[in-house]
Amino acid sequence: MQQSSSLPEQNSQIDKTPALLTTIQHLREQLWLESSLNQLQCRLNDCLLSASTQMSQTRPPEAEIFQIVVNLLHKALSGSRVQCAVGIALFQPQETVGQVCYVSASPSSQTLTLEVRSTKGTKLRLRLHAAIRFEDVQQMERQKPASAWPLVEDSSGVKGWLIIATANSNSNCEPLNPSLNELRSQLINKTVEYCDRTLAQLKQIQSWQQHSEQLASFNQELERTNQLKNQFLANTSHEIRTPLSSIIGFTHLLLAQGYEPEKQRHQEYLHIIQSSGKHLLGLINDILDLSKIEANQMEVQWDVVDVPILCRNVLALVKEKAANKGLKLRLEIDPDIKNLVADPLRLKQMLLNLLFNAVKFTNLGSVGLRVTTQDLYLRFTIWDTGIGISPENQALLFRPYSQIANSASSSNEGTGLGLVVTKQLAEIHGGSLELESEVNRGSCFTILLPLKPTGKVLEAIEVKAAKDLEISQDLNNYSASLAESGDVISSSKQVLLVEDDLANAELMRIYLGRLGYQVTCVKNAFEMWTILSQMQPAIILIDVSLPDANGLNLVQQLRENSQYQNIPIIAQTAMAMKGDRETCLAAGVNDYISKPLDLQLLGSMVAKYS
């Protein structure tokens, strides 16, 4: 049976009974409605099927859905007595002016006109890319009959509106009867419902597809990780067996021939055994360090590090390897850089990893270490004039178990874990690792560490302070018992810290602050005398070496002043030779603590005298 695709015509012939004509007309109308909706549903289902089976499409599925709705609704509503144009306007979030993005083909040469009565009879032409105001479509929705219907918002908040412009082809014809108007209204409302439901289903399909892509990407990453671990195990096995073979082989030769220290050949055997053992130890340490970091079990001992001394010691360890390749070593440290709160062993490990790599990948020229400050960070830059690293290799450099080829060396020793460990150690310190490199122009690796304790460093100091708080409380109880016996003990928690080194001052301020003390920090003698005129501290912590005065001379001046002579003073200094303690006590301090500071001991001393 042939189905009608346009609005059914009114039957003007009066050759049958009115009841029969009414029934036939009603059936035709219902057939037209069901046929139009079925055709729309089939096309929308085809669109959803296409979207679910094709991961990439030339045209967005939302656009396909909107165009299907516009075309089929236009086809259904157009008849010999009615002309119409159907369009969809889209409004971006928070925008009051939208754009007509989809329009059906108009049966006439001119675009149909919409009248909006709320804005003084404004007339809008329904054409593609035409601008339209939000208040106009709202008014068209309220008009009788309506000419605009809201659609569901998409996931990005874009709001769609279905717009229909109609016009009679013959102005002398009578208007459509009420039943056909009702039928037309039903078709439009059902079309809006089908469109909204299809868009919701499309959103669900796209969500499933995104989840599927994520799973596929995750599976690929697992496969890649598994492959890298297999490569790592194979490489590690080779790297471990190689020095072990040397150790076992040359030990066997020495045992078989009998060790004779005066033989040059035997001395060479021992050097090979020692070198192989050191290489094996370094390899095992890298593997263990990475395992501890990944398991979050890396033990870090925070301390105040003398940066210039540590850097010179590190370069001394690299000096021999650099000399063997004819490379020059350079060290540059800003003169105002002194101390840093860090784990000295791990900082040394990070610098050695990068310096050994620089020497390894450099055949001619120089390798250097430059230490500078930038904002609130200390920058350790290890540079070289070596072969450089290509951009594609830079992307692989910090992946666990990855190793790039070394054209500057005949062998690629190691397992490629050094840079991974270095990067993660820098992050444990609250910093980061940066890389700048150009092929045949050398490389620059920069470790950035915060000058002030932050992140895990700060957390570790606070945890230590919390553990030491019990000792401090015990000492406070001891002080209370002394007070009962008649000794004058200050109950104030105010501490004046005279320290010119930022790292040391910040470390003590944080630690003592967690123990409940109010720490005021000053950097020199002038600031000390200024702040003493404004407060009466319970205890003074003073560095022996200050930029504008000798700390012990300041102590003597304090003791000669009746206002300050009873305030307990603790000297902290790098003086640690025999007799230094007695010198400090003779100057008038109550106690003495040497650097690097033992925080628990410091807390005990402050609790004892405050």
UniProtKB/TrEMBL annotation:
NCBIfam families per UniProt: hybrid_HK_HrmK
One family name in Pfam for this protein: Response_reg
Protein name: histidine kinase
UniProt organism field: Anabaena lutea FACHB-196
Modified residues (4-aspartylphosphate): D543
Domain Response regulatory: 494-610
Annotated PANTHER family: HISTIDINE KINASE, TWO-COMPONENT HISTIDINE PROTEIN KINASE
EC number: 2.7.13.3
